[in-house]
Fold this protein.
Amino acid sequence: MNVLSYRDCEAWRAEGLTLSTSSNEACKLYDAILTQYVKWRNDETLGGFEGCISAIQAADPNFVMGHVISAGLELVATTSSTRLDERLASAVKRTTELANVQDITPRERLHVKAIELFSHGNFPKACETWEDILLDHPTDMLALKFSHDAYFYMGAQTPMRDSVARVLPYWKPHMPLSSYLKGLYSFGLLETRFYDQAEKVAMEGLALTPDDAWSVHSVAHVYEMKAEVDKGLKFMEGREKDWQVSDVLASHNYWHWALYFIEKGQYEAALQIYDAQVFRRCKASGSMLDIVDACSLLCRLEMEGVCVKDRWRELFQVTQPHTDDHVTLFNDLHFLMVSLGAKESSTTQRLLEGLQELAKEPGDNQQHQIAGPLGIPVCQAMMEYNQGNYNQAVELLYPLRYSVVDIGGSDAQRDVFNQLLIHAAMNSENKHHQKLGRCLLVERDAVRPNSPLTHRLMQRARALHV
């Protein structure tokens, strides 16, 4: 394992980001893990994330920031819950215990506090704590990335943008990882609908670092939101060699590619990407981002009238073990798509009841707090839709359409719920709902003109309600 080029104790101190350990090896490994996180890529020459995490614990078993980054990465991956996963819960506990008996810096202390808050589902307070760090240490990339992810899980679009904007002037081009700020900032701009600026900033990032998969991803979003489908297809294909190496984000970028095909009505091409890339990768990685993308693709294809055959059943094998996690509502709703698609009614019921139970006494868990007013009715709407009760689906979903943002994810990811509402309204026998469906399509056409998908739905609505 060669971590020679990474920052040692002295280098971190010189940047004003002192790490409380005397092990240069531990400092370099911390940098190596952070770098892989920012680049969305397992560096196999270092043994990837897992290899580095084992090595950092061997280099200095009591290195608090080593524990913070290891436990933190597992937490923000949302693949397991401290409620159910003893090992993860004790990793967080070990981190706080170490911090309590050591003389560490105030910045490191705040990092420990943020991880603990996040582990209890208190995303807003965790973000406040990371922002406290960034006030005094605007070049602390770990605080910036963790807060970026947590804002994303809350659908906090403006804070996600501003969090990066605030620190930009402090980052200088010679600083390690500085070019990756372009992608982070671009994503916040795009989620707050500054599409042209988002594209410009992401392209600046790609000019500096052509294999920055997060900047590629940002541009993919811009073309998706503007329905510039051919531009998007050309862009993804032209840069595939660059972004494909970022194995942690590759499947998600393929998902964006598949969305363009769905938009164009080229369903076979979308299914091909699903089979060859998205499902294959989600099965191999077990990564939550890969899993929810697979769920969403099948759901969108099915709404378009495509027969997805046994794919729901295969995907159910991947999602079913996560039924009781309830880490984020966004994940839950995607698991529900699969249990409904695979006609696994007992899992559907279990997921809903588990959420209802947690919503009764949510404590500090932000996701469980909004489960009652938001998560549960959206689950119920999906279940009604699945049963063909389109009237009820509209009644449940329509009042929530402007709050759905709170379940987290991106505008592009949440669009599946807009489409669900439109399909429910179009298929409802209720004349008022049918009119609503047409209004929603007019509204959709106004925000993203020239969308082939919208135009297809408009034609369908006209044919249905002659």
About this structure: Residues 1-143 form one domain.
